[in-house]
Amino acid sequence: MAAEMLLLLASPLAGGAVLALVGQRGYAAEVNAGFAIVTFGAAARLVARVIADGPLSAFEEQFFVDSLNVFLVALTAFVAMTTSLFSRPYMRIERSHGRVTDAGMRLYHSMYQLFTFTMLLVLTTNNLGVMWVAMEAATLTTVLLVALYRTHASLEAAWKYFILCGVGIAQALFGTILVYFAAERILGAGIGSLLWTHLAAVKADLEPTVMSIAFVFLLVGYGTKVGLVPLHNWLPDAHAEGPTPISAVLSGLLLNVALYALIRFKVLTDGALERPFASGLLMGFGLLSVAVAAFFLSRQRDIKRMFAYSSIEHMGLITFAFGMGGPVASFAGLLHMTVHSLTKSAIFFAVGHAAQKNGTQLMDGIRGLVKVSPTIGWGLMLGTAAILGMPPFGVFASEFLILTTAIAQQPWAAPILLVSLGVSFAAIFSKVQAMVFGEPSAARLPHRPALVPVFTHLALVLLLGLYIPPYLADWYRLAARLIG
Amino acid sequence: MLQHYGPQLVNLLAAVLLLLAFAMLSQRRILSLINLFAAQGLVLFLATALVASITGQPHLYWSAGLTLLLKVLLLPWILHRLIRRLNVKWDVETLLNIPTTMLVGIVLVILAFNLAAPISQLAGTVTRSTLGIAMASVLLSFLMMITRSKAVPQVVGFLSMENGLFFAATAAVYGMPMVVELGVALDVLVASLILGVFLFQIRERFDSVDTRHLEKLKEH
Amino acid sequence: MIDAALLAALAWIALGCCGLVAPRSHAFAGRVLYPAGAAVGVLVAGIAGFALFDEPSARVLPLGLPDLPFHARLDALSAFFLALLGGVAAGVSVFASGYLRADQGSPPGLVCLCYHVFLASMALVLVADDAYFFMVAWETMALSSFFLVTSDHRHAEIRRAGYLYILIAHIGAISILLCFGALQSGTGDYTFEGMRALQLPAGWATLAFVLALAGFGAKAGIVPLHVWLPEAHPAAPSPVSALMSAVMLKTAVYGMLRVTLDLLAFPVWWWGVIALAVGLASALFGIIFAAVQTDMKRLLAYSSIENIGLILAGFGLTLLFRGFGMGTLAALALTATLYHCLNHAFFKSLLFLATGSVLHATSERSLGRLGGLIHRMPWVAWSALIGTVAIAGLPPLNGFVSEWLLLQAFLFTPNLPQGYVNMLVPVAAAAVALTAALSGYVMVKFYGIVFLGQPRDAALAQAHDAGPWEKTGLAWLGAVCVALGLFPHVVIRALEPITRQFTGYGISGEAGGWLFVAPIEPERASYSPLLFLGVATLLILVAWLAVRAFYHGRARRANAWDCGFPWQSARMQDTAEGFGQPVKVVFQPAFRIEGEAPSPRDRRPRYRETAEDRFWYWLYLPVARLAERMTALVTVLQRGRISVYLMYSFATLLVLLFFVR
Amino acid sequence: MNLAGAAAQFTELMLAVLLAPLLTGWVNQCRAWLQNKSAPGLLQPYRVLAKLFQKEVVLAHNASPLFRAAPYLVFGCLALAAAIVPSLSTGLPLNAAADAIALVGLLALARFFIALAGMDVGTAFGTLGARREMMVGFLAEPALLMVLFTASLISHSSSLSTIVEALGHREFVIYPSMAFAGVAFTMVSLAENARIPVDNPATHLELTMIHEAMVLEYSGRHLAMVEWAASLKLFVYSCMGLALFFPFGIAQGGDWPGIVLALPVLLAKLAAGGAALALIEMVSAKMRIFRAPEFLGTAFLLAVLAMLVHVLLEG
User: Fold this and answer.
1) Which of A391, B14, C57, D202 to pair with A367, CA 20 to 30 A apart?
2) Nearest in space to D123 (alpha carbons), one of C573, C457, C446, C579
């Protein structure tokens, strides 16, 4: 156990250090990918272990892996790997276009590894304080990457990202302190009262008032990173202006990780208060995010910005699902987490190449992709169909469960969901259709796109729509029971 | 003796902290803003040390030392260099005029105290009543960040919010476990370094560190 | 049985995937894959034919969600629609193998893939036995048909049509999804078994019914959700429009029947009134708009709306009788409904394919530039005549039989226990009669302008008749139309299992032997197409022979007389607009008419008139505007000022804190 | 079906086919008398037919086979219709083959083909006539159907012979609904048989003609068949009207003595009906073609009203 855990966390950390030291060489990208692959291997081993002998903890309980976070670990490691594979040719082209300096590449690679490390730390740590530290670190590692291009827009985006998330995360720290405060009275001072496992054991006796106030701070804090409306403002800017691989991992992974933290606290809070206080808040914010994001979509001109808003929408949907709770809804939420990060990162890969080919991120400048490059065109089309909840892709599976449960349990929410999903479908599909079909606007560019990641992701999403492997299913079920 | 006067002293320091928060809220000049921030750090250090000596918890001394090092010496020094390099010593005009800001601040303080009151009753610590003040200073720094339009004051607000959090930790629960304290401190340090880098980049792009220039990205 | 059906669907998918082997080869797709697809279609029809009288057979596939594997079940209802699918698919595929040429936008292999996936997904919709499997198949159907519609995506209007189609289809799908949600009502059991077992409270049942009506109606094209239909059908390649109109709309009907008659074991008579009203509205609307169209495929699309309306009316009547517990009459109405589904599938696909041949021969869709094609392409013309007579509801072909049954069902309504409904029924019957008569009008316009008269365009002289593959397809569909018209008792007997399943009664018992159809009892009403046709043919032959015998068969060719007008040109014939004029005048309020008439002193007089669909202005544009306004509203949130953003989170924090207190 | 029935059926059919022109002639004669012109003579239609059969056929160059087949088709359909309508006796074999709805369908079929034939040559008048004919049709047809529905609602059957038996051979009842139906039926049959006020069989005035315009291109034997079919149509409608509204003296089940008795009754009724028709044509004026929809719409509404009245008062 300890070994895999060590490898899992050490590999990206070492990777960050190494890449920072070697600097921008020809093989830096390969090294980056290599470390990512190693990390994924470690994650796979860890997953195997957890499947074999259940929840595990290591380093006197500082680290803890149960069915809830292990699948996120696997997902994170996997998407990090594929993204590194994608970023190899992509960033090389960016470099050759002179949009990035050598120093920038060095920063990019090492920060990429560190970012992976922080996310894995958030997921695996059992210590809520460390969780906060790692979350803040995740912001710090990505903020420079968002500003990688040093353009006006990217600097502005990075600045907003930094300030908003920094402030938000500070609230989360206050919340954490309050939780510690509540725990300390039962478990006594010391590290023990910050360990989630211990808290979960005694969650019923935690002081309700404190926990409710604490959860408010935590919601505002981590919710900012999840991108819940009205705390979402940093998200579209950061996604649109950063390099595409970073947009992919931000919306594919970081949001999930932040939501994961929120869920951990939700479990504690609802345990402390008898009434579903946290669940109610999550439902409300989730629904608000879905509705507002859907209406943002139709006016977008920048393609990455549009898909950033769609990420907000989907995070809202997931949050709503967890807020509803119950075996089906939580199951659906977890499934949606998985398929959303896979699909959305795949879309960002395709979008990145499309933007590179046409030399612009503005959708009016991108036309007739299937003519220019059928693989990119169909990749984008299918990815969009998937993210819009078209079967047989996995997103549909989760949306199916969420909606059917919603109308049965929260009928009032059903019309809102119906309208929002309809509006977002109308907005996104019209724009993507115009980009994919029709007469092309750009000539073929020489370079070959790296589309293996795209179609790998889409294939997985397709699989999840038609057939969920039993162990994965058990795993979701256990996690869903954990969330309640 | 100390056992008797200590808590009162802590409360006094807490009051000073709140006072400083208000002072920062009302302060127009960047330089004195930074000095106030340093003073806040100092008070925080004193409070932490005091609590440490009252409760005799070793790791609190560590965090006190950390505070002294980071908040009183390092960060103010960095900020001073920063504004010298960026030469932005001029006055900061606020988006909201000072008296209004003050009134809002007072409302915030009331809210914070109301929130903290029930919690403080539960607290087993000698310094229970200071939790409200900590929360208030956090909110006040937040307010300050909202009302300042220049980048540097926003940074200062951000850091002083961190101070408030530290104080909350110290006051409410005699400080977080050591590893967390260290982590937080590290984060704050890295954050302020990155902020510095940023300010320079922004400066060289926009020839100004006024965040009003950072309003291009929006929906039309 | 069910395994066979699933295997057939699988075979279709496999054929589609074969298309990707040689994506750019027309010969491979056209000469190998499509004929094979047709063979599978025949197979499917055969399987379904057996399954119709067989016990329902079910199968659980190891796919789908963990707690919800794909359940498939083949009962009489599914089998009936499956037979419909197979029969039509056979004809259309044979036609398609000759039809699809190089001039489409997408490579043929891709079109072939989408085409066969479309067929397979429709088959799966029909055999699905749990909500998830159903929805997956349903949306796959929508997606594949969307790609088929936009297969020639170089034209902006085709893309627009496809977009409108997929949008309405998706919103409909969401509402179907919510309907299933209401049907399982939180038990988490999504299988149809579970839903059957569940006894919903009245409110939930009604909610489910309304959602189902809206969702499936969006696919079926009932008013006011019909706007995609006249856009998508002309845009699609003709075999695809044939399949969509003939089969895909029927899957929507199937869904309605499945949910309402099977899953909702909760007969409420006024649901029937709703369905009846909506159906008749759609029928009249559709046929009135068909009468004023100038594009032959749009005309057929609107007539599809009409036929779906009639089907829905029959369905409503079924619900009405069922709600009042009149089993036999419900069986009669249901028989009429299903029979009309079958008929419409065949004659509408026949007509769409005929228009496809015309389109290929002349590359012209507008009625204003066609005419006289009966001389150039006799085969297409004569087979189209069969379809035309059938769709106009004239004896002895199949269209008449179903309308006859429907009217019979109406005739027996007035002993309902509900007074208002009794008042409503004569009006409804009148509406049906009017629709039927109007469809005769429309079809005379369609056939007369496309195939008869003088060519309105010089280019038509080069028009060629359809190729052998296309002829075969047309012949098959035409033959089925005739057979369905001449042997109704066979069909009625085949429908008996379904009516017994859902109403407890069958009407073929009284069907008066092999010669007569007598749904209730012979002295109430009877009809014998065979005798009818036999005597009519006899009389015609006798007349002809007598004339030949007593007089002579001489004929001389000369110019048309036309009251002695010397200069006769093709432009003196009625245009499509001209022929539609009376309907436009009589039903003026239904249209949104714009246009200008020339003043007597115009140098170059120009006449323009467009009759638009009011629903655009009543429903769709307002909705779009509303969405626009909402967008403008939320945009305020993202104004770019960081202090404001901070304020949002600050305010959120304070508000939450305040409410926690 | 027994042999006697078949024979009766055959008699009825031949009678209709042979008597139809006579009825036309009779109507024309009555009209001439009322206009106090000198009448052309009762057998004039037969002479016309004979003449036309003698003449050779002149076909337009682009007349299709459909054009040549149409007259026989139409004639066949109307002859069949004549056989279906119980004019002499009920319960004949063909009554079971087609009920009221099928009868309407049959008439529609005939209209359909004659209209297509009108469009086939592609002349201005042909299409004009076809369009107007169909315009008349799409309003007259449902009206006729509604009239028959009223009758079949009363007799709980849509089979014509059952209707007639129910109306004629039960104890006498006054049906208010049948009054409405009768008016509607009269209006419909005026329109359907191209009579004043909707059309005028006597003129070839371009702007107003309907039926004549449609068959303008026909000549020789084709025209003869068309004319014969037209008079058959008049005969069928008359018999239908008589069977519905004056269902007396119609034999049952095709028994010979009954038929022998029924024949003079029928002739008498036809004579009266023809005279009445001529009278109506005399007193009313030809209306503009665009008034026709209103006229027929009224008929349609009256027919629907008849059903409602039935449901209301007699249901």
Assistant:
1) A391
2) C573
Cα-only R_g, chain C: 26
D122 to chain C: closest CA residue: C453
Question: Hey, what amino acid is at D168?
Answer: G
Instruction: With CA atoms as reference, report the closest residue to B174 among B74, B36, B61.
Output: B61
What average pLDDT does this structure show over A140-169? Answer: 91
Q: Domains of chain B: which residue ranges?
A: 2-90+106-209
Closest residue in A to B181 (Cα–Cα): A129
Print burial letters for A253-290: b (CB count within 10 Å at least 16), e (below 16). Answer: bbbbbbbbbbbbbbbbbbbbbeebbbbebbbebbbbbb
CA C45 to chain centre: 19
| pLDDT tens figures, D291-301 | 889 999 999 99
Asked whether the beta carbons of C469 and C94 are under 8 A apart, the reply is yes
3-state class percentages of chain A: helix first, strand second, coil last, to nearest 5: 80, 0, 15
Predicted model pTM: 0.94
**What six digits make up the tokens of D292?**
């026709």
> Taking Cα atoms as reference points, which of B140, B149, B145, B64 lies closest to residue B106?
B140
* Sign of the four-CA dihedral A434, A436, A439, A441: positive
Which amino acid is residue C88, in one-letter code?
Answer: V
Looking at chain A, which subunits does it touch, using at least 3 CB pairs closer than 8 Å as the criterion? B, C
Helix (H, G, I), strand (E, B) or coil at C551: coil
pLDDT in tens, C188-229: 889 999 999 888 888 899 999 999 999 999 999 998 999 999
Burial class (CB in 10 A: 0-12, 13-18, 19+), C476: buried
What is the gyration radius of the CA atoms in chain A, in angstroms? 21
Chain D hits for C422, Cβ within 8 Å: 311, 315
Q: Complex ipTM, two decimals?
A: 0.92
- Three-class DSSP category at D56: coil
Rg (CA), chain B: 18
Higher confidence at residue C553 or residue D111? D111
Say if strands A56-58 and A63-65 run parallel, antiparallel, or are unpaired: antiparallel
Distance between CA atoms of residues C240 and C34, nearest Å: 13
Cβ <8 Å between C638 and A163: no
Q: What is the Cα–Cα distance from A480 to A467, expressed in whole angstroms?
A: 19
CB C42 within 8 A of CB C31: no
Nearest CA to C292 out of C284, C302, C277, C278 is that of C302
Which of A276, A296, A318 is CA-nearest to residue A484? Answer: A276
Considering only CB atoms, which chain C residues are within 8 Å of D59?
555-558
- Provide the β-strand partners of residue A125: A63
- Going along chain D, which residue ranges are E strands? 57-60
Tokens encoding C547: 């004339």
- The per-residue pLDDT for range C62-119, each reduced to its tens digit, is 988 888 899 999 999 999 999 999 999 999 999 998 887 755 667 888 899 999 999 9
Chains touching C, CB cut-off 8 Å, 3+ pairs: A, B, D
User: For residues C239 and A50, what is the distance between their CA atoms, to the nearest angstrom?
Assistant: 54
Mean pLDDT of A353-382: 88
Residue D1 has pLDDT above 60, yes or no: no
What's the token pair of residue C242?
A: 């044939």
